Request: fold
Amino acid sequence: MNLSKHLNNKKKDFFFSIGGIGEIGGNNYLYSFGGEQLIIDAGISFAGDELPGVDISIPDPSYFLDKDIKPKALILTHAHEDHVGGLEYYFDKINFTIYCTEFTFAYIRHKFNRVQNFENKFKIIKPYEEIKFNNFSFSLVPTTHSIPDPCGVLIKSKNGNIYHTGDWKIDANPVVGKKFDIKNYDILKDQQLDLLVGDSTNANVTTSSRSESELVKSFDKIFKELKGRIVVTCFSSNIARLKTIITTAQSLNKNIFVIGRSVKRAVQTAIEQGLIDNFEIINEKRFKDFKKDNTLLICTGSQGEKNSALMKIATETHNNIKLSKKDNVIFSSKEIPGNEKSISFLKNSFASLGLKIIDDQDEFIHVSGHPSRTEIIELYKYVKPKSFIPMHGEYMHLTSHMEIADNLGITNSIISMSGDLCELDLKEKKHKIIDQYIISKLPIVQSNIIQDSLFLNERSKMIFNGAASVNLIINKKLEILDMQIKKKGFPFDDSSELLVEEIKENLLNKLLFLKSDLNESTLNEFLLDFTKKAFGKFYGLKPEIMAHTSII
Reply:
């Protein structure tokens, strides 16, 4: 059945993950209550090998931008890119209100500086402020994460109550934002919580996630010990980590460079919001002017993104930043599953330049922003949910989370992957998957959504088979005056004479029957077809071929 027909059912409630379940990132969730829809988060994902040459992707937003449904609201739980990064790519198509906290708006508004009256689509709300619609209401419940103003979402419907956790952790002394307070959850404890949809990222981790503030001493020690320039890379929207790095560097009077558009935007927002003392972000063109031992760079690209500043520095293609032996690179982030190869390439590139590489296996330079098993157990024992759906994690994280719920006696649980339409039974707690949809990951190239997958097929073909161009000049007497074939990225470098003769022979035989009905377009089609066949015959490969014909 068409998804919109389900979602417009006035007698039933649904949960539909567009992105964020079965993966790390791309958080985008849809709830429907008696025909009224609510969207939570609009995130991006890191692109995998199936998207060659692409750094990020978004889950297909057409599922909630469908003209046949009319969502009442979009809620942004916090300002990390895997929860808000997709918004800028379809902002113009949103005709419903976007709700968020003050800091989240402060962060994302920089994305829309060139959009006239963009702020009219936003509504900043305070914690516990209830927003009501006909079939449901929602309010934001403050929590703790590696960024200011993170919230979970309490949804009240006619059939029951749902808590969507967002990202959270227990941190009694965070670097930014308020400390974790279990009393914030009294609103959930004091009334029946029929369903909890919860963060699974660290459900298989048994040790505490530790406090962000514990990193301050560690960075201070490392910065003092290291000689040469120091490059630190982390997630660009990890405001807590950026503050730790910057304040430590400031205390040691280091000259600070911030490299990469997204991290510059995050730092600027943190300064505007008074989270980081204002300081001079030195123009990268002046990089060579400062002593090596007193220079710190903060860069985007911790996940090995192909087009990031860090990758350009590692491959010595950055216009202004050139590193040398005795410099240092600190990876202050977790490896996102699927990015291992690109991160390994990045580290090996730095190693080949003679740099010292430090990651969380070497030093205490990273803490997670997500709850471990012990933290999950503490919260769930307090709020006592009656049923449970795990989100935000790969399948092994989801199953670990299900195990925790089962051990706590929350037996009315179900794994609903992205693309699964889950019919919610908030009264009897017998949730069930009733339909499945294939969710496309749309690549982002030069800040644009690419919906046509043809270019990806072409890129993949060129990666494995190379590319070739064939140029033909022929006169009106059907005499071939010249034919040239050029190959790029092609594994064989032998003579093309036999290949050219094969194409010429097949082409001339075909033209004998088409003398009276010949034009450049038709001739070009024949040339392309015979060239493809010749490459298959001689090499057993199918390169991406471009053909051009001129009749003179």
Remarks:
- The chain has a mean pLDDT of 91.
